[in-house]
Amino acid sequence: MYQTTYHRPSSVDEAVALFGKSSEAKFLAGGQTLLPVMKQRLAAPSDVIDLGKIKELQGVELSGDVLTIKAGTTYFDIMQNADVKKAIPAIAYLTSVLGDPAVRYRGTIGGSIANNDPAADYPAALLALGATVKTNKRSISAEDFFQGLFTTALEDGEIITAVSFPVPAKAGYEKMRHPASRFALTAVFVAQTKSGEIRVAATGASQSGVMRVGAIEAALKANWSPSALDNVSIPASGLLADIHGTAEYRANLVKVMAQRAVAAAG
Amino acid sequence: MGVEGIGARVVRKEDKRFITGKGRYVDDIKLQGMTHAHFIRSPHAHAKVKKIDSSAALKMPGVVAVLTGQEIVDDKVGNLICGWAITSKDGSPMKMGAWPAMAPETVRFVGQAVAVVIADSKNLARDAAEAVVVDYEELPAVADIHAAIKGGAPQLHPEAPGNQVYDWVIGDEGATDAAFAKAANVVKLDVTNNRLAPNAMEPRAAIADYDAAEEHFTLYTTSQNPHVARLVLSAFYNIAPEHKLRVIAPDVGGGFGSKIFIYPEEMVALWASKKVGRPVKWTGDRTEAFLTDAHGRDHVTHAEMAFDANNKITGLKVKTYANFGAYMSLFSSSVPTYLYATLLSGQYNIPAIHAEVVGVYTNTTPVDAYRGAGRPEASYLIERLMETAARQLKVDPAQLRRTNFITQFPHQTPVIMAYDTGDFNASLDAAMKAIDYAGFAARKAKAKADGKLRGIGVSCYIEACGIAPSKAVGSLGAGVGLWESAEVRVNPVGTIEILTGSHSHGQGHETTFCQLVAERLGVPISQVSIVHGDTDKVQFGMGTYGSRSAAVGLTAILKAMEKMESKAKKIAAHALEASEGDIVIENGEFKVAGTDKAIAFPMVALAAYTAHNLPDGMEPGLKESAFYDPSNFTFPAGAYICELEVDPGTGKTSFVNFVAADDFGRLINPMIVEGQVHGGLAQGIGQALLEHAIYDANGQPVTASFMDYSMPRADDLPSFNLSHTTTLCPGNPLGIKGCGEAGAIGASAAVINAITDAIGKNNLEMPATPDRVWRTIHAA
């Protein structure tokens, strides 16, 4: 690791001010990506601003049909939270298959979506549920927030404060775990909103990061059942291919995971 | 058997320090004035080193030195050696490419060191390494075996035309051809044995400390065999004469073969510590482990098996290409030859075998022994062939094995090995009963109704362990003898120290070796300590690998114990005024048989050291040593059966059951044996389903971190159902065969046989990843 200066602000405003004063600062959330990258000397921030002790970034609130998860809430706390389990159990399930226990104790939802790894779990949930990302400056729809591999709508120094999820009528998540990293080799989140809209998002599949899957949404709109997807064919073009999965295999997984997610959603 | 004697499930003595974080590994050691080394490694698979400019690095804070490959050559540090000479079929010796500890002019794999920075801290050394400018001229590289042997392929070593290390044969080609000419059926199979990265939990590390006044070196290193390290460093690398070099291997966190070898980093640390006049520490990180720890396996094989009309095997032909990587590692030459082809008879009566092995250089990390070393490759090949044959001949795979089992012992195979004992039907019976083999068809039908493809796979393995009879291996080209030494030191108050040339790096010797003493003397194991891993303490030893520590190392201890007991009995008889022949040892006492006359062992020990009243002519003291050289290999064997389900939608495999029935001869501590089998099975299943060290066509490693290289995790594995069917090994007095490698040898074939049974297609390479299985299911 290169030399860096560590800061631990106690408020979002203080964190933003610190960022403004540094040349090459990075916000540190759970550190499950940034710290390994720094240890490998692949990142060299002049300053690391730890958001982990900011109280206003912690917690879960359920208000009517909106579940709000503060950005600094750890995976473990999300997975255990009674409101999450009650309102959107698919999010609790997604979190339980994210990484391993050590990752879940430290990683946060804000850190995950800010990093926008193309195989991360949460982006699929946000996109399928039509979530809103709240920052210290504005609200951003999930569609607008995720902008491709490791790219988001966040501006320099902008901090995610929370994610608001409209509580769906039904939702389900199924994941084929990457055998080495335990990210998603491909995973699919399916949701039926209370207004009847069908939204399906796949992660780990596309070369452009998390994506909506229109063909599956259309089939499920006609018939919300796993068998409705039997004749759907997902094209392999534009999908990721590596030593753990060909593009054709990932195309198959998009369909199979979607079918199983629908079954899980009920 | 006492409560802590042979056969007792004694809790491991060493675990208190390991579990409480008090283990003392090389990286835990800090010496006064210690410097830190960081190696500058080639990013290219094949390149000329044109120039190394360290001027900027030398001006950086805390930098002590930047040393290059040319300097280590100029100082006449020897090139790395290969300790087993193999002769090609044309009579020519194997073709060794020169391997200097750091490359002066040519790098041949990604990760090969060209220079080292020595600095006051690890981080300063790493900072400075980034300022060293190495000018490379890239050369064409080759990573794949088939590509490397093609005409026009990039050439690695001028010493080895065509990238060929050797072309070696074993067996009777004429007899084998004759068997095939008469065969009723011939079964053919092409298999690849995937390359693995060993990934011991503790990365390799070394601290070298040169004492200029004494002209003496101390090396702390992660070694499975510190005495062999000292021997090689002294005899071949010109570091120091043996009496001026102490090698200490303290607690070592796993080896699996990868810590047998003496690596460039230890050599450089020793050489550099003298050059800079301060201790030098190097601790590898995980990426360096992936790039530089010797890899395992990497064979491509075509095999054919001939059967008569009664499904009896009449002949076996094998041609294997073995990837050596860029250089010949210490025991690499023996792995695909004498540790592989000599096991090609498996558990079967095969009258004629002929095997040819071509060793091939490629621009990849050197390949050497990894848990099982040659024997997993042999067992996998034979057991895949047997399964293929059963499918082709339409007979039950278990029955086909029984039809061909060796049942008479000793049995001389056509490929050197003489099996001493075994009962292959007994282990297969036990495994089939444990898994309810007869009920499988009904379970498969039920799984099918649930949309799952269920399969069952058998693997009947045999291995040659207890490595090894020195005369035999010497006649086959080994550069060392493979006996073991032991010393029993009884202290004046009766506590006992056992000095052994074996080395424990996870095996639990501090417990099992004490159990032998408890068995012999009836003393608690708390009165016994095991001393190992330090060339200044233990006279000599060959170390731990090849499932040899119990069969060879513990037998050496037994021999030393017998000498000690013989002297102690004389002392006891003298004190008790009895005849030596009447003395028996029970519960820590030396008794006159059939009387109540007895003397406690500590009093015998005290008498030996006070020497006030010893038999006439007896020397004082109670300390004996022994060197034990086995008369044959040992032959652990067993039957593994795996039942699993494949999800046709994803290709993912889920275990239903995995049973292992092993014959390890006598068990010293069944709990530790079970732990060894569990770990071995995890590695064998890891090879079958997950692990693969991959290079791209240009020799760039694709799997150099745990983000890409899939290690088996607990939730990838089933609960194992273990049992033992024991035939005692006649070759050593304790009847021990060894258990360290069996799981890794037998498991892979059981898994692949089960998956291919489930999906109804015979050809499937390892690792059987979900993607590969899914594509195989859906292939036309």
Characterise the protein shown here.
The complex is a heterodimer of chains A (266) and B (780). Chain A has three domains: 5-50, 2-Layer Sandwich (Uridine Diphospho-n-acetylenolpyruvylglucosamine Reductase, domain 2), CATH 3.30.43.10; 55-166, Uridine Diphospho-n-acetylenolpyruvylglucosamine Reductase, domain 3; 170-265, Enolase-like, domain 1, CATH 3.30.390. Helices cover 33% and strands 22% of the residues of chain A. Chain A has eleven helices and twelve strands. In chain A, the strands form three sheets. In chain A, strands 4-5-8-6-7 form a five-stranded antiparallel beta sheet. In chain A, strands 9-10-11-12 form a four-stranded antiparallel beta sheet, sandwiched between helices. A three-stranded parallel beta sheet of chain A has the order 1-3-2, covered by helices on one side. Chain A is globular, with a radius of gyration of 18 Å. Chain B is an alpha+beta fold and 780 residues long. In chain B, 28% of the residues lie in helices and 23% in strands. The model of chain B has no long low-confidence stretch (mean pLDDT 97).
Topology overview:
The complex is a heterodimer of chains A (266) and B (780).
Chain A (H helix, E strand, L loop, with lengths): L4 E3 L4 H10 L3 E4 L5 H6 L7 E4 L9 E4 L2 E5 L4 H6 L1 H6 L1 H8 L4 H6 L2 H7 L6 H8 L2 E4 L3 E3 H4 L14 E7 L3 E8 L6 E9 L5 E6 L7 E2 L1 H9 L24 H19 L1
Parallel strand pairs in A: 1-3, 2-3
Antiparallel strand pairs in A: 4-5, 5-8, 6-7, 6-8, 9-10, 10-11, 11-12
Chain B lengths: L14 H5 L15 E7 L5 E7 L1 H4 L4 E6 H6 L31 E2 L5 E7 L2 H8 L3 E6 L6 H5 L14 E8 L1 H9 L3 E9 L11 E7 L4 E6 L4 H10 L9 E4 L15 H13 L3 E4 L2 H7 L6 E9 L5 E13 L27 E9 L13 H19 L3 H8 L6 E2 L5 E2 L4 H12 L4 H10 L3 E10 L7 H6 L8 E7 L5 E5 L8 H13 L6 E4 L17 H28 L6 E4 L2 E4 L5 E3 H10 L12 E6 L8 E10 L6 E11 L6 H20 L30 E5 L17 H18 L10 H9 L2
Parallel strand pairs in B: 1-12, 10-11, 14-15, 20-21, 27-28
Antiparallel strand pairs in B: 1-5, 2-4, 2-6, 3-5, 7-15, 8-13, 9-10, 9-12, 13-14, 16-17, 18-26, 19-20, 19-25, 22-23, 23-24, 26-27
Helix pairs in contact in B: 10-19, 15-16, 16-17, 18-19
